[in-house]
Amino acid sequence: MPDSADHQPVFYLISGLGADERVFQRLIPQLRGTVHYLPWLAPADPDEPLPAYAERMATAIPLDRRCWLVGVSFGGTVALEIARLRPLALVALISSIPGADQLPPLLKLIRATGVQHWLPPQILKFTPRLGQWYFGVSNGPEYQLFRQILWDQEPRYTRWAIRSLFRWDSRDIGPAVQIRGTHDRVFPPGPAKVEYLIQGGTHFMVYSRADEVARILNQLAGEFRSEPPVV
Predict the structure, then answer these.
(1) Using the 8-state DSSP alphabet, how is residue 6 labeled?
(2) Has this prediction a pTM greater than 0.85?
(3) What is the number of other CB atoms lying within 10 angstroms of the CB of residue 182?
(4) Model confidence over 3-62: pLDDT tens digits?
(5) How far is CA 64 from CA 31, 67, 75, 125, 223, in A?
(6) 174 φ, ψ (degrees, to nearest 5)
(7) 9-224: which CATH number, 3.30.70.270, 3.40.50.1820, 3.40.640.10, 1.10.287.110?
C-alpha cells in the first residue's frame, strides 16, 4: 500500500542569489513528495544580520515539520542558517558550500580587496556572456532563462546577499549533504568530502542537470523517511 501524503517527503527549495523559482522548473516535477518554494524576502535593512533574515524566512516552516531544506548557491547558506532554527530539518546543498571557510580563492580575493563595494551589484546584467561562462550556462533556452533572471535581479537584495555571504559566521553550523558539479566555476569542489559529485555539472546544474539532481534528492528523502534526523 502506498504511503499516505502525511508520510511523503517534504522539500523546501531556496534558489541562489538573484534567482527565483524558475531555476527549479525542471526539478520540481521530478521530486517525489510535497514541494514548497521559499521566495526571497526583501532585507529589512542593508545591514540585516543573516541569522535575523533566516529567522524571517523560517516562519514559513512549521517548527515540528521534518523536511529537507534544499539550497542552491547562496540559498544553501540561508538553508543552513534556517536549519539552526528548525531541528527536524535536513539540508541538501546544490552548488553551494557547507561553511565560510570553504569560499573559493576568487571570492576570498574579492572579499579581501573590497572590490564588491565599488562594482555595481547587477554587473552581470550588463555582461551576460561573462555570466554565462562563469555559471556554466549553455546556449539556447537555458541562456535565455539565465538572461531573464539576471535582468530581474533586485540590486538592493543582491548587494545585501553578497555582503552577508562575505560576513557569514558559520561556526557550529549543522551538517549538510553536498551535491556539487565538477565544472562549477563559482564554487568548485575542493579537497573536502563531497557526498555527490556530478561529472560535468556546472553552477547552473539545478536546471541543466535536473534529472540527476532529482534522482539524488529522491534517494536521500527515501533513505531518511523512516530514520531520525541527524543532529
Answers:
(1) G
(2) yes
(3) 14
(4) 445 578 999 999 998 789 999 999 999 999 999 999 999 999 999 999 999 999 999 999
(5) 22, 9, 22, 40, 20
(6) -80, 175
(7) 3.40.50.1820
